[in-house]
Amino acid sequence: MPDLKTKYLNLELNNPLIAASSGVTKSLSNLKRLEEYGIGAVVLKSFFEESIKSDQILNPAEDYHPEVYEYFGYEHDKYFGLNEYCDLIASAKASMKIPVIASINCVSADWWFKFSEQIEAAGADAIELNVFNYASSRNFASPNIEKIYTDIVKGVKNSVKIPVAIKIGQNFTSIPHFVSDLEKSGVNGVVLFNRFTDLDMDIDNFEFKTSFEFSEKHEFFIPLRWIAILYRQVKCSLGASTGVKGFEEVVKFLLAGASGVQIASAIYQQGPEVISKILTDLEEWMRKHEIENLATIKGKLSFSVGAEGVANYYMRSQFMEKITQYE
Length: 327
Fold this sequence. Notes:
The protein is α/β, with parallel strands linked by helices. About 40% of the residues lie in helices and about 15% in strands. It has an 8-stranded parallel beta barrel with strand order 3-4-6-7-8-9-12-13, surrounded by 7 helices. Strand 3, helix 1 and strand 4 form a beta-alpha-beta unit. The N and C termini lie far apart (about 50 Å).
């Protein structure tokens, strides 16, 4: 029988399929169903700093009288608003055998570190940092954005001992340089890429609105390219996200160098049953090609680090070839 085991964030997974952070992973019943259908690991729905009630928030950088901490239940993590989230982590760990990865999304710098400490204490196997930060001002230079990410990673790594991943968007000038800096900051894995809500407009009421749709299969080409480029340039785990609809995308991500493949939209659209189908099809593909374990194909089609710029030359030559076909 083909061996689907893989290692992601130094965690042993039965297979590379990971349920991405989403509404599908916000309840214990859903998590157990995902495990039942064979998922390798789960990333819990993100805990957002904004979910804390305003009257519960204390500034962790300030010193308060001990009675204030007692009032807010400081010792019991109440004022952080994390009780239910930590309970979910603890319940999942108690009733499931697969790795449970927590996800947090903060605005204020100090909360990344405080939340991470409590999440580790609750029993999470790892933490995925979900950073959302746009350079919407001309006075905010791109290096400042990258420094926010690296500072968050350094702070969280200093706060916890469990593995830490960070999920990033694709709008960075030099992704290899940025990911390398994240690795130097101590991150154990980088997930490529995050999907954000899109800006839309109501042309009848003259108002802004947002749009968010399930990922499409064609979207997987972007993370596929960058994972193939990054694999031999960094040592941290690379997680693939976006556009996974079947086993073919999983295979391609693995060939590019991914250690884990996150899936969400397909679960929403087809139900958790899609997990077992992907795994069955993956095993069949491995038998067809006489592949005993996935480790033998990981990164097989990544770009060589020894040939500087080879990815750029390849992509440019392919661009020219495709353009010629349609002229």
